[in-house]
Amino acid sequence: MAKIVCTADLFDDEVERLRHAGHTVWLHSGDGQISQEKLIAELADAEALICLLTDRIDQELISAASTLRIIANVAVGYENIDIGAACERGIIVTNTPDVLTEATADLTFALLLGAARRIAEADAAVRRGEFPTWGLDQPLTGSGVFGKTLGIVGMGRIGTAVARRGRRGFGMRVLYHNRTRDAAAEEDLGVEWVPFERLLEESDYVSVHVPLTDETHHLFGRGAFERMKPTAILVNVARGPVVDEAALVGALEAGTIAGAGLDVYEDEPNVHPGLLRLRERVVLTPHLGSATRETRKRMAELAVSNVLAVLSGKEPLTPVA
Fold first, then answer.
1. Which is the catalytic residue, given 239, 272, 281, 296?
2. pTM over the 0.90 mark
3. 88 counts as catalytic
4. Which of 22, 82, 244, 304 is the most exposed place for a label (fewest CB within 10 A)?
């Protein structure tokens, strides 16, 4: 049977599924990310790779893995994989869509609410023993969310789930911008498609849900921030490089926009030092979009199911190439 290389910390029952099918599983057990040299060496006789978004699966690695049949990325995105090189070799690439939609949408609203109502600042103040006297304009007064305008950039699965929370949970007016209009979402949720510039100008909260492409790289730069309301808050749970972090820091420091909730960064795990300095209406989380135990287990299960299907001669469940 096949050798399967796994850089992801799969749950024990998923590893057992692979072994029960007769396969040999090599698990990365070291601290931190596996080195490229070690990964190439282990793939020399492997037929399957289960990897994470943080693993760089480039042309060099794919060329060296002469027996590889499938790369199962435990993520929705797959920009860490050289898809062209994989296709040339006839290697199937899969991802884990759908299963993390609701968890990521939940975190989107957590960041939105956290920045709007200044939750992190308030928590820190209480822990320092600074309990402000109540007053109509007391310290840590935040911004309202119910009934405000939410702008969604990227109306895919996660964007639609965020729109549903905004419309049905918070009575928000929801604008969206996407390459194509979503008639079903417009009818079901009452959302409105608008040009990107209008979305920026009218939204109280702007939530980013686009993939990282040449077109979306630094989509949110100085020009975009200058179009936004000075009271607006940006939320990004998509991909870090969609936002120009230096421009964001400048906009926050200048009061061009009011705040931000970020789960992804341009150079993860590094975060722009300017963002780390900012406290007011800025909430930062370390790429936790899918980080619920239930969701991570479903992601692992789907990745393993893709591998088992391909190794048994069947079609993958969620192929991207």
1. 239
2. yes
3. no
4. 22
